[in-house]
Amino acid sequence: MSHKIAKAQRKAARSGNEGRGRRGGWRGWLRSGSRGRLGVWVLLGVPVAALALWALTAVGGPSGGSAYAVGSPGPGSAAPPISLASSDGGTFDLAALADDTRVLLYFQEGLTCQPCWDQMVAIEQRRDEFDALGIDRVVSVTTDPLGLVKQKVRDDGIRTPVLSDPGAQVSDAYDARAYSMEWMSPMRNGHSFIVVENERILWRADYGGAPDYTMFLEVDTLLADLTAGLEGTT
Description:
Radius of gyration: 31 Å
Number of strands: 7
CATH class of the largest domain: Alpha Beta
Strand order of the largest sheet: 5-4-3-6-7
CATH topology of the largest domain: Glutaredoxin
């Protein structure tokens, strides 16, 4: 008889403990079985998934656009002077250009960014469409040393003059390094296009900054943005 009483007491104790577990707040709920644990993971997983989706779109995911910033100096401002050694062997002097010469300046990251050089090749392949917009010259600016720039344009077969700005004086005068990749800032230029005519800025688009950090732009997009930006300037 004492054995049966002891067994009944143990069973009653277990039942009491399980009841306290179910009534013991969220810890008891977690201990109550797999259904409770599944509910917790669902509740936690939904906001986490939503946060991940937001982060993807915030940094320019597959469906991200190509919106650009407009830095300073911007349209209507005087263009800072440029006199830099060029990959073509001469010196590019913005002030020495003939009147009404329209120049597209392309400030780019340089040797650490192959897509930036691919961008020049893509522009060269459709140079006639830039000519149709009144662009007389296209010139790129990077902070890399001249010797390395010359080697790079030879290797890639690039015809566009690339200016060497190792001290970044010109790049900083145009604030081009403000739109670089976040982990490189302020070391290198971003991905900025600026149209200058008669030493005044007509149009500017800085694609390289947050949130998209664009380092290659489809030429169709560049031409569309350039066309819209130059309307009424001729």
